[in-house]
User: Which sequence fits this backbone?
């Protein structure tokens, strides 16, 4: 099981800015290990965020996204006290969902 | 699901099975549903746009702002952002021309979400970085060259 994401959601007027730090290896599939064998790609393919059940962000990622990925986006309609849920799925089928309260 | 996507995913699955039997990929490796393999296999901006459904070449636009450093000291973490002031932007993509797969990240922008995203990317070498935006059925791009002093792919 992977480590929890760090999510910060801040409302300013009508606009809520969400910053997410995911804990994930994001192996590119380009690297070789000490014996010269290619390390298989292992990366998050889909990450999405919902607010009150409505999808506010849906992204597809390739292996070129950095290790322990960062994502920032903003949406309208959130207010302090609301919850934002972020979920990801990687190419091994592992998944994780975390929630944060908008401040 | 569109037929093209289905075909792309299923052929990807076959390739993975072959790779798994060759011992290259753990047997449980699989693509997430809806992951646009064709787009992520593309090598150029034009191919990416095509895989996303463009019928004509993307047009450079001043209303699309690409935030990227001029010089990245460490290619394994390069902060890249895209902001679109084009009305009706529904999709944003970040493309690194000289990476093994050009498309790095693809963002759907639902109504109510600002077409303004940023994330960290890996860059193998100095390259042009593109932001690609889809508005209606048209595609727009912005470009910036990022010089990398230390690569992020490979050992």
Assistant:
């Amino acid at each position: 099981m992977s480590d929890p994401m760090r999510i910060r959601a801040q409302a300013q007027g009508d606009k809520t800015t969400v910053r997410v730090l995911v804990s994930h290896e994001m192996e590119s599939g380009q690297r070789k290990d000490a014996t010269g064998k290619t390390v298989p790609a292992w990366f998050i393919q889909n990450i999405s965020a919902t607010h009150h059940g409505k999808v506010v962000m849906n992204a597809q990622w390739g292996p070129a996204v950095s290790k322990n990925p960062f994502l920032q986006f903003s949406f309208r309609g959130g207010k302090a006290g609301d919850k934002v849920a972020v979920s990801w799925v990687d190419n091994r089928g592992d998944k994780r969902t975390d929630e944060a309260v908008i401040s | 699901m569109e037929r093209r996507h289905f075909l792309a995913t299923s052929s990807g699955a076959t390739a993975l099975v072959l790779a798994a039997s060759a011992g290259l990929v753990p047997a449980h490796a699989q693509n997430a549903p809806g992951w646009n393999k064709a787009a992520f296999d593309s090598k150029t901006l034009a191919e990416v746009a095509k895989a996303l459904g463009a019928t004509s070449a993307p047009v450079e636009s001043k209303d699309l702002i690409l935030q990227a450093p001029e010089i990245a000291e460490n290619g394994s973490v390069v902060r890249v952002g895209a902001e679109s002031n084009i009305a009706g932007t529904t999709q944003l993509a970040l493309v690194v021309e000289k990476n093994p797969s050009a498309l790095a990240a693809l963002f759907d922008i639902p109504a109510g979400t600002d077409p303004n995203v940023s994330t960290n990317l890996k860059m193998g070498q100095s390259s042009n970085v593109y932001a690609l935006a889809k508005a209606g059925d048209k595609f727009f791009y912005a470009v910036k060259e990022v010089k990398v002093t230390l690569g992020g792919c490979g050992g």
